[in-house]
Specification:
The protein is of the alpha/beta class. The longest helix is centred in the C-terminal third of the chain and has 14 residues. 39% of the residues lie in helices and 32% in strands. The protein is globular and about 45 Å long. It contains five helices and six strands. The chain folds into two domains: 45 residues, K homology (KH) domain (GMP Synthetase, Chain A, domain 3); 69 residues, GMP Synthetase, Chain A, domain 3, CATH 3.30.300. β1 and β2 form a beta hairpin. The strands form two sheets. Strands 1-2-3 form a three-stranded mixed beta sheet, sandwiched between helices.
Length: 114
């Protein structure tokens, strides 16, 4: 799966294939970045939502709470206050991208960072 944002492109690759997608010494990612003129992020997919969140969130997770109620799936991500800005991103850009990836891959309706 590919999510193309204004200044970044996110690739979700099969479990165990991130190294292949990145290339030796980051060669493939650098080539794509140069062609597109954007940052490229590679995330390994997992059917296990908790494991996939560990792949998506660029900081140490303190915990993940997944709730399903009335057909709605909500994910609460707990990170240290030092890392919260890194997860949310400038103007919420990173958390918006995480939400979009989780919606597309795991049908998550809501993502909250604590």
């Amino acid at each position: 799966d590919v999510i193309n944002k204004e200044d970044e492109v996110y690739f979700v690759v099969p479990d165990g294939k991130a190294g292949m997608a990145i290339g030796k010494g980051g060669k493939i990612v650098k080539k794509i970045q140069n062609k597109l003129g954007k940052d490229v992020k590679i995330y390994e997919y997992s059917d296990n939502l908790g494991k996939f969140l560990n792949n998506l969130v660029p900081s140490d997770l303190r915990g993940v709470n997944i709730e399903e109620e009335d057909g709605e799936k909500k994910v609460e991500i707990s990170v240290s206050s030092d890392n919260k800005g890194r997860v949310v991103g400038k103007n919420g850009d990173k958390i918006d991208s995480i939400r979009e990836v989780l919606e597309r891959t795991h049908n998550v309706d809501e993502v909250v960072v604590e």
